[in-house]
Amino acid sequence: MVQRSTAQRSGNPSPIPDKISVGLIVNGVETTLRVAPWTTLLDALRDHLDLTGTKKGCDHGQCGACTVIVGGQRINSCLTLAVMHEGDSVITIEGLGTPEHMHPMQAAFVKHDGFQCGYCTPGQICSAVAVLDEIKAGIPSHVTGDLNAVPQLTNAELRERMSGNICRCGAYSNIAEAITEVAGRPA
Fold first, then answer.
1. Single pTM value for the model
2. What are phi and psi of 74, to 5 degrees?
3. Which of 76, 120, 56, 69 lies closest to 95, judged by CA?
4. What is the pLDDT along the chain (187 residues), one digit of tens a residue?
5. What is residue 22's three-state secondary structure?
6. How far is the C-alpha of 93 from the C-alpha of 37, rounded, in Å?
7. Strands 67-70 and 20-26
8. Are 109 and 124 in contact (CB under 8 A)?
9. How far apart are CA 19 and CA 13, in angstroms?
10. Helix (H, G, I), strand (E, B) or coil at 105
């Protein structure tokens, strides 16, 4: 028999707490935040940790500007709640490198001018880093021809894997050149 609280028996919903503690490891630093239960990971990063490199684009998971790496997987941080990531490792653009010590992908984006306005660039770079890790791990995509073979970074694979990141300025060819340079093959 399920025991119900007085509020549930009377038809009144249980009150939702104003704030919940969530522990995250953000860019290698353990932190505990007090956030509303409905706070997205994106808003937690931007509003509570002042990590404003991760951008709010569409708030619907369609543009990729909010892409971060959680537990080694790229995700749209606007589509997930911060409390769902208790104990998870989160890497943002700020955690990949600094202007003085850039991650190879950041340096390649600068070298190949893989940005114009720069708004989508943090999400593009986080996604590109994760794309190369996916391929290295042998994870197939929708366009992978042979599911038993190790995926190769072909133009079709690159376009498919990066399709969730929109560049409104149209710097796609430069982005592709940057990614393929870091991958070790000519663009």
1. 0.88
2. -80, 140
3. 69
4. 444 444 455 566 777 779 999 999 999 999 999 999 999 999 999 999 999 999 999 999 999 999 999 999 999 999 999 999 999 999 999 999 999 999 999 999 999 999 889 999 999 999 999 999 999 999 999 999 999 998 999 999 999 999 999 999 989 999 999 999 999 865 5
5. strand
6. 25
7. unpaired
8. yes
9. 17
10. helix
